[in-house]
């Protein structure tokens, strides 16, 4: 069987995907609960939003993990030279679907924060606008092509 991609490149990419997947798993278990609790404790308007933020954060990380599993499959297909066949379409659809869901979750978190933090006297205006700006940049469309 002819190899269509260098096996060391494929191995390196799969190692990177495995590390990102493990980082997402660690974030779901430890970082997301800690960050949602810290946000709830920092500002009084965000106390009620601790659990919604935690759930949306974990769902976002699940989307990333599913997308990387599909990318793993695409890398396996590229090693055998069948990446540009109908076999790859379900994987591509999974990646696109996960990206769409993750974007919707980011928009939902942005809206929740904008509404819940709007009239909070304990939150400095600079914090509110900075967080709103970062969330807005996260969902803004990126255009890298000229045409």
How would you describe this structure to a colleague?
- By secondary structure, the chain is an all-alpha fold.
- It is 75% helix and 0% strand.
- The chain has helices at 7-42, 50-80, 89-116, 125-139.
- Helix 2 runs antiparallel to helix 3 (89-116) and helix 3 (89-116) runs antiparallel to helix 4 (125-139).
- The longest helix has 36 residues, at 7-42.
- The radius of gyration is 19 Å and the shape is elongated.
- The mean pLDDT is 83.
SSE ordering: HHHH
Number of helices: 4
Span of the ends, CA to CA? 40 Å
Query: What is the overall shape?
Result: elongated
Strand content: under 5%
Q: What is the C-alpha radius of gyration, as a whole number of Å?
A: 19 Å
Structure summarized in a few sentences:
The chain is mainly alpha-helical.
Please describe the topology of this protein.
Blueprint: H1 7-42, H2 50-80, H3 89-116, H4 125-139
Helix pairs in contact: 1-2, 2-3, 3-4
Which features characterize this protein?
147 residues, mainly alpha, 0% strand, elongated
